[in-house]
Design a protein that fits this description.
alpha/beta, 3 domains, two-stranded antiparallel ribbon, about 10% strand
């Protein structure tokens, strides 16, 4: 299963559809609209201007598809849902082209505007959706016939797990789950000998992250017993900062309360724990906003960078930039960059959090922290995609381990990219101990549950106010 190849197929046929649609529309304009306007047959000429326009239009459509998440999760596409999404995107794209390129074009009457929009939309939608329907139908056939599948683990080890596996394994059409084994949850319950005969026992729930990495797991289905329901939060916490799709078998209460949303007509009923915190278009907009702000901050703020670099160098001996490992999205480590605000070897006795009157902080470092200017080099981390401008502050693994002892739900922060500023940072600034870090955690969790461009803008405004008023700590 080659995801990159599948994306390339979609890209290729989307490009072909865009070229065919615009070329056909160009011919329609020449043969029908312009010929009627001038009273003579207007020849179709494929000149330099046409090819420049064709290139620009094709790039526009591909960019629009990328921004709206068309090429994400390329193998899990519902044909009906994709048809509806293609219709909406094509309508939006055609309207954008009309108001930017065609509004001042040659017309016979105002009726020409409606004809242009209708013809361009029909061409673009019909060609794009036709190619995509063929691709997705081929993919669905390969999934149903078990030619391709998604590595899946079964979390559970007794009757419910065995029943679910038998149900899914006996279906004539596969829904893409290729079971690599099961994970044991509760030591007191043991596990089914029948299940052990059919599936490999991969290990305990505490080892699930290593299991996911080893077997390249894409989906996890939780099928535990009623007596084990107290472990659901523990299981979800273990899986929350991974890229794995989580599904849970519902009980009758879930079904009666309307919590079970069907993902297929013939497949086993499962509740999918949604990981799409923001719509695809809004995630793309957030990323573009990150890039724009980072470029502006690094270019316009270059004199400030120079001033701070000189200040750090004169304040104490040592490096200007301090780089240290932090944990980012999905628990992946990366190196964060800051202007050094402490004396060298400040942590020679081991990792320690800073406090308001921390003697390790230099006088110039204290000024930088007040106005948050020590964080400026992190715009480079944002630019290369390791961080976002707004998001939970990244922590070191040492402190994450201490936080997890008291607050296992901290792993949920790893569902998103860490940020330079956050709601928790606005409220608390630099946490002085683990308890404050846990207190700050609830604001970051609330941010994740309410992520949007609007919320990001509000946090940015409050951050700017803190910088201007020097209220950081």
């Amino acid at each position: 299963m080659n995801k990159n190849l599948q994306v390339l197929k979609y890209l290729f046929f989307d490009v072909v559809a865009a070229i065919m649609a615009w070329t056909s529309f160009y011919g329609f304009r020449k043969l029908y609209i312009e010929s009627e306007k001038f009273g003579v047959a207007v020849p179709i000429e494929f000149d330099r201007k046409f090819f420049l326009g064709l290139t620009a239009i094709t790039i526009f459509w591909i960019s629009l598809y990328v921004v709206t998440g068309t090429y994400a999760d390329i193998y899990r596409k519902s044909r009906l849902k994709e048809l509806g999404q293609t219709l909406v995107i094509c309508l939006i794209g055609v309207l954008m082209i009309f108001f930017s390129l065609l509004l001042n074009d040659i017309i016979v009457s105002y009726k020409t505007y409606y004809e242009s929009i209708l013809v361009l939309f029909c061409l673009q939608f019909f060609l794009t959706s036709s190619f995509r329907l063929i691709l997705s139908s081929i993919t669905n056939h390969r999934i149903h016939s078990r030619q391709i599948g998604f590595n899946t683990i079964l979390i559970g080890s007794n009757e419910n797990a065995l029943k679910l596996f038998n149900e899914m394994d006996s279906q004539k059409k596969s829904w893409g789950n290729r079971f690599v084994g099961f994970v044991h949850v509760d030591e007191t319950n043991g596990y089914s000998a029948q299940l052990r005969e059919k599936l490999t026992h991969l290990g305990e729930i505490q080892e699930v992250r290593q299991i996911i990495e080893k077997y390249e797991v894409e989906e996890a289905i939780i099928a535990i017993e009623s007596s084990e329901h107290g472990n659901i939060q523990k299981i979800v916490n273990e899986l929350s900062d991974t890229s794995v799709i989580i599904k849970i078998i519902p009980d009758m209460y879930d079904i009666l309360s309307g919590q079970v949303k069907m993902t297929s007509i013939f497949g086993a009923p499962l509740i999918e724990v949604s990981k799409s915190i923001m719509p695809a278009w809004e995630s793309s907009a957030k990323r573009m906003m990150d890039i724009f702000i980072s470029v502006i901050a690094m270019l316009v703020g270059s004199p400030i960078y120079l001033f701070l670099a000189i200040g750090v160098k004169l304040s104490s001996k040592g490096r200007i930039i301090y780089s240290h490992e932090r944990i980012g999205i999905h628990g992946k480590p990366f190196y964060i960059h800051k202007f050094r605000s402490m004396y060298m070897d400040a942590e020679k006795t081991g990792p320690a959090l800073s406090s308001q009157h921390d003697p390790r902080i230099t006088p110039f470092g204290r000024f930088m922290r007040k106005v948050r200017l020590d964080e400026l080099p992190q715009f480079y981390n944002v630019l290369i995609g390791e961080m976002s401008v707004v998001g939970p502050r990244p922590e070191r693994q040492y402190f994450i381990n201490r936080i997890l002892e008291k607050a296992p739900h901290y792993r949920h922060l790893h569902k998103v990219k860490p940020g330079i500023t956050s709601w928790g940072q606005v409220k608390y600034g630099y946490a002085e101990n683990v308890d404050q870090m846990i207190e700050r955690l609830k604001y970051d969790l609330l941010y994740i549950e309410n992520m949007s461009i609007y919320v990001d803008l509000k946090i940015l405004i409050y951050t700017v106010l803190i910088v201007l008023q020097g209220r950081g700590k």
